[in-house]
Amino acid sequence: MGAPQPHAPHGGLDPEVAAHAGAAQGGAPLSVAPEGGATAEAPALLGGAPSLDPLDPLDPRDATDARQTESRLAAQLATASALSGSTSLVEAAPRVLAALVEHLGWDVAALWLAEPEASAARPPPALDGAPTAGDTALAAAPAGALRCVEVRAAAPLDPEALAAALGEPRSPSGEPELVAEALRSGAPVFRASGDGVPEAAREPCWWRAACAVPILSDARGVGALELRSRAPHRGDEQLLRVLSAVGSQIGQVIARRRAERESARAAVELRALFRAIPDLCFRLDDELRIVDCNEPRLSELQAAPEALLGKRMAEALPGELGEQIERATREAREARAVVALEHGLPGAGGERHVEARMMPFLDGHALVLLRDITERRRTEEALRQREERSRESQKMEALGRLAGGIAHDFNNMLMVMLGYGELLLRRLGPDSALRRDALQITKAGERAAALTRQLLAMSRRKVLQREVLDINAVVLDMQMMLQRLIGENIDLQTNVGRDLGSIKADKSQLEQVLLNLVVNARDAMPRGGKLVVETSLGEPGASPAAKSFAPAERDEDAAPDAGGPPYVVLSVTDSGHGMDQDTLSHLFEPFFTTKARGKGTGLGLATVYGIVSQSGGLIEVESEVGSGATFRVYLPRVEGRSEVVPARARPSPAGGDETVLVVEDDDAVRKLIVEVLERRGYGVVSAASAEEALAALALEGVDAVDLLLTDLVMPGMNGRELAERALALHPRARVLYMSGYADDVFAGAEPDGERALLQKPFTPDTLAQRVRDLLDRR
After folding, report:
1. Helix (H, G, I), strand (E, B) or coil at 41
2. Strand pairing category for 502-506 and 189-192
3. What does the alpha-carbon distance between residue 304 and residue 321 come to, in Å, rounded to a whole number?
4. CA angle (480 as vertex; 474, 483 as ends), nearest 5
5. Are 453 and 468 spatial neighbours (Cβ–Cβ below 8 Å)?
6. Nearest C-alpha neighbor of 212 from the set 230, 194, 187
């Protein structure tokens, strides 16, 4: 067999036919140009029914040509029927190849397909049983760009013969050269060998006649039809047209199957995406009926998916939510945009908030996404309340700094007034006419001092003397005093809880908190009523209707450290006229009052807020107009037990001969202290600043000073820094601080035995007693 010769395209044929071919003359090979979009109708594929017009030079003139035409027409009809009547190419391929072998008179027909169409049409044979001839041929075909997926033979052939029929010659990529050339050129290829040689001299060969037709799908070569015969065949235009039409039909089937696979895969992916949406999702048709929903989220509606399909949203969702969604869906369609809404739904655990988003989808459908945003709304509300508390705290902080600064300067003046007033009273005899006037001066000074203490407590500038307390003992000790305070027309009930544990607070300040709350409750019941004071354990936020008042930043050292509920709660409830929301929003502001002019200072509740905040606690208030009010004070619960120290009568303070270094920046206060101490026999060295005090120590000698009495808040170096430097030089010296307010000098530290504090304003006797107590510890 000679080597295949080059093939040239044959031109001049009708471009609308299924393929273009050239006739083989004198044994020369024939190359056919690609066919351009043949249809499945057999007459069109044959170029019309054969005509017997004697003037047509291409018409068949004998009975053999007529039978050949009929056979080729039958082949077209059979292949078209096989392709249209089969559900897949796997089912149609054997019938198509059998029709070609039977009606066209070829010995072997094979279908070659490229991946992935080859695997889609037929997976590679395993050959693990008794192989058929076709399976053997398929397995014999080497792997490459193409794979033989189906073979049919006119007569039974053994596997070796069938493999030989498809195995000569091969291209470098593995497929037969004839198939490779057809795919490369995009046109049918016909080859014949041995023409003109006597039949007896010809060797048996599958290369006697061979034909390959490319299979095109979307203008891309996806495979080929291959026919071989041991007998000679004439490659004419009509034969190649028939084969091209069959290849075109197979290409259309492959394109349709590919589109179906891609559509199915897209549907699966879309469905998976639909299922993966974390929200409850519905797809609505153009009548707003549910056609699909993501089942994993249906537990939120407690409904099965099949129970919802076909229903309108107003039927599937509770309350007005469904109707609102339908209206919003129509708006989304008209605007071709996303429309969102929020809706509240009643629930067992309280109201739940739902966010719905409606958006247009394909084919007039719409998507509805539902999301439970209850937790988000709760978080936002908690954040809003925290920001509100922060603003309130900043406002209180600003007012407190103003009040604290005023109180500091005022305390210095009051101390001079009270100190010299007491000294004046001692000089005046009991029968002196001026004694009564001096007493009025000192009493007015004491009332003013009480007012400054309230300002300091409100501004959280007062240094607290914290101790472990039993809150029940504090409440019960004050019960009789509270009853006398509120009068007989108010019924006072005291309910104390059991096993509350302890709190750490300043006892006098805690008594002030209870006293102010009871007085506020009394004033809310001018015609009498019921007042309940009780203690319990609890946590803030238990009552949704309560408004919380807490500093923006609480002292971490004051956090609860005991097991169980973390707070001890002191509650004061009255049956008075109650408060509206506007009053509640200003409740703890300094100088805010609803009382008549001259009936109150507006510092009572502000003082409560300051003391509770400085003690590491918070306050909740619950009130409505006409329904009374409840104040709940939450104080951190701590480990430890309170110790009750019995009060002892103390004698008049004695003096001494020790040396005291007095450091005070206010001249009048410093002179008063020096006079009081000198009258009691002490040696006194005075300084107006910390720097002056250090110079005095250097001059007098550190061992000459027994006690350092210093103001805490001074310009330049403060009292604490001065004490640290003095103690570094003279560790045995004692230190007594004095201050109108401590500000941040102590930085939250508790005064101890080595660091005592004397709160301004103080009396001469108080000063003398504290000085003597400290010096006696040496």
Report:
1. coil
2. unpaired
3. 19
4. 115
5. no
6. 187
Q: What is the DSSP letter of 561?
A: -
Instruction: For residue 56, give both structure tokens.
Output: 């047509």
Q: Give Dmax (Cα) for the chain.
A: 168
**Using an 8 Å Cβ cutoff, are 373 and 428 in contact?**
no
Q: Which two tokens stand for residue 723?
A: 């004490």
Using the 8-state DSSP alphabet, how is residue 362 labeled? Answer: G
pLDDT tens column, 194-241: 544 444 444 455 567 888 999 988 888 888 999 888 888 777 888 888
pLDDT for the residue numbered 663: 94
What is the rounded distance in angstroms from the CA atom of residue 352 to the CA atom of residue 373?
8
The encoded tokens of residue 729 equal 């030089």
Query: In the 8-state DSSP scheme, what is residue 299?
Result: G
- Residue pLDDT, tens place only, 68-110: 888 888 888 888 888 888 888 888 889 999 989 888 888 889 8
Q: Which residue in 659, 662, 707, 657 sits closest to 681, CA to CA?
A: 657
Residue 703 near residue 659, CB atoms below 8 Å: no
Residue pLDDT, tens place only, 425-471: 888 877 787 888 888 888 888 777 777 766 666 555 555 677 889 99
Label residue 629 exposed, middle or buried (CB < 10 Å: 0-12, 13-18, 19+). buried
Contact 531, 574 (CB under 8 A): yes
Question: Which phi and psi angles does 218 have, rounded to 5°?
Answer: 55, 45
Beta-strand ranges (E) seen in 428-465 are none
According to DSSP, the residues that pair with 709 across neighbouring strands are 662, 736
Which residue in 587, 633, 604, 616 sits closest to 454, CA to CA? 604
Q: Which among 511, 493, 725, 535 has a CA at the least distance from the CA of 631?
A: 535
- In the numeric block, the tokens 């059979």 are attached to 78
Element (H, E) at 602: none
Distances (CA, A) of 381 to 345, 373, 386, 388: 17, 12, 8, 10
Reduce the DSSP state of residue 493 to 3 states and report it: strand
DSSP per residue over 616-663, as a string?
T-EEEEEE-TTS-EEEEEEEEEESS---PPPP---PPPP--S-EEEEE
Q: Go through 185-204 and write b for each residue having 16 or more CB atoms within 10 A of its CB, e for each that does not.
A: bebbbbbbbbeeeeeeeeee
C-alpha to C-alpha distance for 622 and 736, rounded to whole angstroms: 44
Structure tokens at 599: 């009936």
Average predicted confidence (pLDDT) for the chain: 76
Tell how strand 490-495 and strand 529-538 pair up: parallel
Distance (Å, whole) CA 540 – CA 560: 13
Q: What is the reported pTM? A: 0.43
* Cα distances (Å, whole numbers) of residue 418 to 411, 427, 437, 442, 736: 10, 14, 13, 6, 20
Cα distance between residue 757 and residue 710, in whole Å: 10
User: Which residues are registered as beta bridge partners of 597?
Assistant: none
What is the DSSP track for 541-582? TS-TTPEEE--SS--GGGS--SSSSSEEEEEEEE-S----HH
**Cα dist from 217 to 122, 220, 221, whole Å:** 18, 5, 6
Distance between the two ends of the chain, CA-based, in angstroms? Answer: 130
Omega cis (within 30) before 116: yes
Q: Which ranges constitute the DSSP H helices of 348-432? A: 374-427
* CB of 214 closer than 8 Å to CB of 188: yes
Instruction: Decide if 500 contacts 558 (C-beta within 8 A).
Output: no
